[in-house]
Each structure stands twice: as structure tokens, then as C-alpha cells.
Design goal:
With about 500 residues, the chain is mainly alpha-helical. It is built from 20 helices and seven strands. The longest helix has about 40 residues.
Amino acid sequence: MKIEDFIKKPFSNDCHEYGCSLLDISPKPEYATGEVVLASTLRRIGFSESGVSEKKVYSNGTNLEKNLRKQKRPNMEEGASYVGFDLWDSIVHEAIKSPKKPQQSESRFLQISPLVPDASLYSSTSRVRGNSWNPGSLVEKIVILGSEDDAAANKNWKEFFNALSVGENDDVWARFLQMEFTAWRSEKNIKWTEPSKLKASQFSNKFLSKESQIPAQQFVSDLLKIIELKDYLTRRQWISMIESILRVGSATHVLWLCRANEKCFDLIYNLLEGGEVKKDFNLNEIFAGGAGFWRYGQLAYNTINDLASGFMRSRLGINLIILHLKEAGCKVSDKCLSDEKSFAQFLKQIESFRGKISFKDFRESFQKALEINKKEIGKSKVVEFVRSVLGQRQTNEHGLESYDQGFYLGKKGDYRSSPWIVSMGPVAVISIAYACTSLKDGPATIDDFCNHLKNYGIVVDVEEVGRSGIGETLRNLGLVLDSPDAEGGMIIINPFNRS
């Protein structure tokens, strides 16, 4: 790829070296609610072997609507039935209905809560029609990265599949829904099947120390703990907690990679300019979890915008530096951004080729690319993804205004135009409180709870808990043993203590 061509369309084709590294956020995220992430994960983990893709979901929903009107279950013997057609129609359109966005409330398309695997076949994609991105693939990558190694990732992925499956220990409502939905499959070759072995991760996380505690590691730990709750809750309660942890895990993974791109670009930019890399440098300094992204209660949009635009600029800059190196005759390794040894070699290459690359030329081409693509950088779809997946669902549908309780961004006021702030819904608080207490050998304190949130990039000081909305939510849910003289000494109560 020529530098001139790249400058015109820098986000159409990344360099191969960048595309096969962890820095690359793929699949490229765009709009997705929590239910879209959950439904896509169901399709990815259990239906991908049957060839079910995101683009088939709308036509599946259309076929289901047609069969409902015909009162015909296509995947059953003639005359067989489980419930009356009118009752099943009411269940699909009312009992398990999921709210549409305000501008979609009058639109006629199915929107079903993905309570059971087969419910995900008919709705909940990022785009109602056409090709949608696949959030389930993103979740799969996060599980790989957050697991100790590839063997552990496969074990965790299959454990997740088994938990999402509907079995004899599920409540009667879940078993009924799955049984009935199965009878309405329009294609008999569609089967809920255990996933095949995950592909070996392109990016080894072995050099990432446990102390770095990246969001993916916290997500996997929390997911496995919430999976253990399945037999003790109703399907709806449990799946709501699964959805909530998927939301915060996927969004903070993307934000973490945005910041990692910025750190990486700053390092190699300064090196190209003539700076030096300190002798004790290691890749953890780029990928470590570090400080949080935002504080609890703060306005959310500026942080999302800053990280997203920083990612777009850094992604452009890293690719451009690679192209300048290649043009100067440098043989850049495919793994230059993928492991500690290769990255160290990459930095040495930049040092050795500084005399052959005009920093002034690079800076001018970088500024030119930024100017030409200013609009695309300023409207990164990362912003849309993070806001939509973490934000509380907004709807005009009567009776469904409070449908979403697993959010991490809420409105500051009662109006739709009110700004978004970092704020957790009751299900989100319960999910984090349970994971926090379950991962501790002894009692968990507010300090532990705050540290747990920080691993997801949400910062709240212990002394602020009592004065913040999260403290009120914890008390209203009965999740703390109050200590009036020491907030840090407050004990978090396990919401589902099974001892």
C-alpha cells in the first residue's frame, strides 16, 4: 500500500501488521444494546455451526411472523401443537417483547428478549436489516484474552455455552419457551450445537502480568462466577445478570484498547522524533489496566469522545509509521505489535531507521491524513457502541420504560435530552456486588467493591460511596452492613449467599 493512497482512506485497509495485533479492535464496533450483544453471543456460541449469521436474523423474524399468521409450526409434525396459536402469538408480541427505540416504536418488526437460545434467531441485531457487525465475535475474543491460555479459553467458552443452554434444571418458563421456539424453526438444519474449538489467539497474553488486571481478565472471572448462579435464579433473573456483565465487559475492553493504541502511538512517535525508550520498559506499560476511564457520577460523553477520537488518530498514526518504515526498506515483522519480544525488536528498528526517515515528512503526512479524514475521526462508531451498550434503554413504549436495569450509564435528569452520566442500574450493582463477594475468601468491603469497579475503568473513592448514587442503591438493595464511622469498613453482603 502506498502512503499517498493510505492518506486518502486510512480506515479502509489497515496494515497487515496492525490488523493481526491486539491493538486492532475487531470486529469493528457500532451500535449495540445489551440485548444485541447477548443475542449475538448466543448466535455465535451455539448457532454458528448451523450457518446462522447476523444478516439472516431479520429474514428469520419475517418468516416467523408469516408462520404465525398462517398458524403453522414448520418444524413439527402436521397437527402437533404445544399451546394455542393465539396464546403463542401473544407471548411473542407481548410477554417476551423487548422495547424499541423511540423512533422505532411504530415500526413493525419483531423485537424479542433473548431469554433462551432460539429467541436470538429472530431479532436483536445492531441493524434491523442488512449486514450487521457481530458483537458475539467480540465477546469470543475477550474470553480468549481474559483467560489464562488457549486451553482455559476453550474450557470457559464451552462452560458458557452449557450455561446458556436450556436443560432440565432450568425453570419451566425457560423450558417451555425453548421447546416452543424450536418448533417454529423455519429451517430443520438449524441446531443449538456445542461450539468447535476456538482458534488459537493471535496475541499471546502470557507476558501480561496478573497485576495489570485488564478488563478482559476481570470480565472472565466475573462471568464464571455468575454462571454458577444459574441453578439458584429464574432464567430471566440470571440472563439479566449475564447481559449486564457482557455490557460492561465488552465496552470497557474497547475503551481499554482505545487507550492502549494512544499509549503505543505516543511511544513510537516520540521514538521516531528522536526520543529514547527506557531500559526497563515492557509491553505491560502499554496494556496494563492502570487508572480508570471515568469517575462515578461524571458526565460520560467527553470521556467516550476523547478515547474514541484518540484511538482513531493513533490507529492512523501507527499504520502510517509502519508504511514509512517499509518505504525506507525496513522489513517489519507481522508480529511487531503482538508480543513483547517482537515489539522490542520493532522499537529497535524504528531507532535504527530514524536516519532514513524524515520525521518532518512523516509529521506532514500524518497531519494531512488527519485533516482529510477529520469528519470520520470525529464521528467514530466507537462512541456509538460504548454509549448504546452501556446506556439505559430509552423507549416510548408504555409499561417498558423501566425495562433496562443492567445499565452503566444513566440520564442525569428525567428528560430525554438530559446528559448521560456514569451510573449503575440495580441489576448492574447486584452483578458486581455478587462477583466481588464471591471472589473474596473473607468478607468483602466497600474498598474491595471500589477496586472491583476500577478494574472496569469506573473510579469511585471509598469516602464518596456514602454520598453517591451507588451508595444509595447498595443500601436500597440491602447489600451493605452500614458502619457510620468508617465507609471503608462497610461490609458488602453477598446477594445470593448459598452457604
